[in-house]
Amino acid sequence: QYMKDVNCPFKIQERQETVDWLLGLAVRLEYGDNADKYKDSTPDGAKNTDNTAKNAEPLINLDVNNPDFKAGVMALANLLQIQRHDDYLVMLKAIRILVQERLTQDAIAKASQSKEGLPVALEKHILGFDTGDAVINEAAQILRLLHIEELRELQTKINEAIVAVQAIIADPKTDHRLGKVGR
């Protein structure tokens, strides 16, 4: 009943969106009651207002009322599983933050490396089961080969970790090159 009274645009099943909307409503109402108190407040981390304003609003010139803009932001938000918000500019900022966090230099470098290998003849690899569809069988073979490649990379990393641990805990008196223990 309360949700209907405050005209919440979300259904009760959409819990995250509803809670976020309610929190936003509470903040708006609190600010509305004490606008003079909060008007001159600045964020704790604000250092230089000129740089902050320049860096915080790179998207200020966008037309947020354009239907194409709204559709694009919603599509991106759905793709990245970002919570919906009434303000599309806020959603776009959330998308920007997520992309900046996920696309670190290491991730970009790894993605830009092209993996070129030898061509693989799929008919030489036995799938072990038959789906009844040749296309699905071929896709399953490809997925199995990719999985094997990932397992080999994992095994290599495990072996490297074992060697590193053994180097740390090995008895320094042991000289495996001489084949004897002690001095």
Automatic annotation (TrEMBL):
InterPro entries: RTRAF. It holds the Pfam family RLL. Belongs to the RTRAF family. This is RNA transcription, translation and transport factor protein. The gene is Rtraf.
